[in-house]
Amino acid sequence: MPWLPPTLAFLVTGLTLAVLRRSKFASLMGDVPNERSLHNGIVPRIGGTGMLAGLAAAWLVLPQAGQPLTLAAAGYVLLYALSVVDDFHSLPVVARLATHLAVATAWCWAALDGPAWAAVFAVLLIAWAINSYNFMDGSDGLAGGMTVFGFGTYAIGAVLGDNMLIATLCAAVAASAIAFLLFNFHPASLFLGDSGSVPLGYLAATLGWYGVDENLWPPVLPILAFFPFLFDATFTLFRRVLRREQVWKPHREHLYQLVIRNGIGHREVALASYALMCGFSVIALTTIGTDPRIQIM
C-alpha cells in the first residue's frame, strides 16, 4: 500500500501541529524577530516537530529499509534534536557546523563506496545543503514549497526508476510538507524552525546522492530539483564574500529577502517561487535517461 505512508505523514503532521500550536511547547519555541527576520511578531517554530512526527509515522509502515536509508533517518533525528536545542538557545556557529559535518561524514562513510575524494565532496555537499535550506527558510511558505516540489521530484524519479521504497519515502516527506503549509502559507501561524530546515536539507542531499548511487537518476537531477534554494544561497554567499562581509552573521541579503524588502508580499514571492520550482522539477525529470552530454549542455 504505497499510499499509506504519505497519507499518515500528512494526517499526523497536520494533527500534531494543530495540537501543539496552542501548547506550552509552542510558546517556548517562539521565533523572536532579529536582524535576519522578515516578520514582526513572535511565531512558534514547531513545524519541524510536526514533520518529524509525520515522518516517524510513515517510517513505521514503510517496507524494511536498508542501511543507507536507516542511517539517513537516524541523521535526521539527530539533527532535529540538535536544532531544537539551537532553537531554544542559539548554539555557537562552530558547534553547529562541526555537527553538520560529523553527521554527513558518518552517512558517507557507512553508505557510500568509491574514492576518498568523492566521499569528501559528498560530505561538503551535504553540509552545504543543510545550511542552504536553513538560510532559505525565512519567508512564509518558501521552505515548505521547496520541500513539496523537491521531494515530489525525487518521488516521481524513483517511480520512473522502479524503486517504490524511495518513491514512497519521498512522497511522505512531500505530504508532510503540504500539511505544514496549511499553517505556514501567508499569513504564517507557524514556522519550520532550524529543527525543520536543517534535517530537511540533510535529507534532500543524502536521498539525492543515494538516488545517484542507485542509478535512479543522474547527478544533475538533485541539483535541478532544489536549484532555486541552492542558487540563492550560493549566489548570496559569494556576493557577501566578495564584499568582505562577516558571512557567519545573520543578514537579510538573500534574493528572496531583497524582493520582500522592496515591497513584494510573502504570498506573491511564494507563488512565484512555486512556479519556478515546478519548472525546475520538470527540467530535472527530463534528465532521466538522457545523454549525459545533453545534460551538461
Outline of this structure?
The chain has 297 residues and is mainly α. The chain contains 14 helices and two strands; from the N terminus they run H-H-E-E-H-H-H-H-H-H-H-H-H-H-H-H. It has helices at residues 4-20, 24-28, 47-60, 67-88, 93-111, 116-136, 142-160, 164-184, 194-213, 220-225, 227-242, 255-261, 266-286, 292-296; strands at 30-31, 43-44.
Describe what you observe in this structure:
With 297 residues, the protein is mostly helical. Helices cover 72% and strands 1% of the residues. It is built from 14 helices and two strands; from the N terminus they run ααββαααααααααααα. The protein has helices at residues 4-20, 24-28, 47-60, 67-88, 93-111, 116-136, 142-160, 164-184, 194-213, 220-225, 227-242, 255-261, 266-286, 292-296, and strands at 30-31, 43-44. Strands 1-2 form a two-stranded antiparallel sheet. α4 (67-88) runs antiparallel to α5, α4 (67-88) runs antiparallel to α9 (194-213) and α5 (93-111) crosses α6. The longest helix has 22 residues, at 67-88. It is globular. The N and C termini lie far apart (39 Å). The mean pLDDT is 90.
